[in-house]
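Quick one:
INPUT:
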């Protein structure tokens, strides 16, 4: 009798376990192993060297891709179908679903959508009349490029489960020049800009902006970005994807080489050519090309003392008497201090109480007009 009861209990346990398993579309993990059957709480797996491309619009597919031999991009498998727009980002599920991490996109350039185990679910609001496209994400950070009702790009907004918050707006004489953005492990957003013009699209700047909207770095660059549809961070390397219409690098994925304050294009990698073509890229093992310990700046601030204990003095550069904004960012990208100043400061310095700061590394940044001054500080 005891044996029969034990067998019955094992049977019930087996049924309960099986009821918690659900099938997701099969994909390869970059080493030939199928993802297969997963629990709904697992979400989209992240494997080394894997990234994804969104092909076409509604009814297209999100494909799993890897770089092979350092010279060509290989299509492993199709993972899911796309949403209304072929925008693609990968991050934690910010809308409360247990299916996490997952893909984010948008629907008809108006409504953020997320992949929730078999379906693309709408968010809790619709952005009207502005448009959102070209999303990028990592962890708990999700950004969209913000457009007006006529599709003129205005800047970048961060997505939260209950709305959007503008992070960075570019001047009227600038525009987004690569149709995408990327997010590193610190939540900093990377994107290319250039002068507003018609015809050939030119990229002359690569900007890195913190979650608080401060420009951490500006890299000078110079390349034609016509028909550039995607950006990708993979293992701390930044890539730009060009479509079939690019005059120099058609259907390629090109690494961006960072040296000092300059960004240049490296050796292109051949991309597979799906039908319909890819409209956006996303990755998971992004890395942090702009790690706190690697930050250097042409314009540095004179700070004393450093390391700091309770107070810090920031000595202002000569002839800097106009409107200024000072921010301090911790190693996780959180703004712990932000203040605006105007006019000449007493003794040409700003004194800040840092006694409440946690121990660790920080970036302090001063913006004055078109100039940005940055330095690293340590709190004991």
């Amino acid at each position: 009798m005891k044996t029969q009861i034990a067998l019955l209990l094992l049977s019930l346990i087996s049924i309960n376990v099986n009821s918690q398993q659900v099938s997701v579309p099969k994909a390869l993990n970059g080493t030939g192993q199928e993802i297969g059957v997963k629990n709904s709480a697992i979400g989209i797996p992240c494997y080394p060297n894997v990234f994804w491309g969104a092909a076409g619009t509604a009814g297209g597919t999100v494909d799993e891709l890897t770089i092979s031999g350092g010279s060509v991009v290989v299509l492993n498998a199709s993972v899911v179908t796309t949403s209304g727009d072929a925008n693609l980002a990968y991050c934690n599920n910010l809308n409360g679903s247990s299916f996490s991490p997952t893909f984010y996109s948008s629907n008809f350039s108006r409504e953020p959508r997320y992949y929730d185990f078999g379906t693309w679910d709408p968010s809790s609001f619709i952005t009207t009349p502005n448009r959102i496209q070209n999303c990028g994400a990592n962890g708990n950070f999700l950004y969209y490029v913000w457009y007006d009702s006529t599709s003129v790009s205005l800047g970048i907004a961060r997505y939260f489960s209950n709305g959007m918050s503008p992070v960075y707006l570019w001047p009227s004489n600038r525009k987004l020049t690569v149709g995408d953005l990327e997010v590193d492990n610190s939540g900093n957003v990377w994107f290319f800009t250039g002068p507003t013009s018609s015809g050939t699209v030119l990229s002359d700047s690569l900007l890195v902006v913190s979650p608080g909207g401060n420009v951490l770095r500006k890299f000078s660059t110079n390349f034609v970005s016509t028909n550039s549809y995607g950006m990708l961070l993979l293992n701390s390397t930044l890539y730009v994807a060009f479509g079939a219409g690019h005059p120099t690098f058609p259907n390629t994925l090109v690494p961006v080489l960072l040296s000092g304050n300059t960004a240049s294009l490296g050796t292109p990698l051949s991309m597979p050519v799906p039908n319909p073509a890819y409209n956006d890229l996303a990755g998971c093992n992004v890395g942090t090309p702009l790690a706190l310990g690697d930050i250097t700046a042409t314009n540095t601030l004179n700070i004393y003392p450093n390391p700091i204990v309770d107070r810090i003095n920031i000595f202002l550069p000569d002839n800097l008497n106009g409107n200024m904004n000072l921010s301090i960012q911790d190693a996780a990208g959180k703004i712990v201090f932000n203040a605006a100043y105007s006019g000449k400061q007493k003794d040409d310095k700003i004194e800040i109480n840092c006694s409440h700061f946690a121990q660790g590394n920080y970036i302090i940044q001063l913006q004055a007009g078109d100039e940005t001054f940055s330095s690293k500080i340590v709190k004991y």
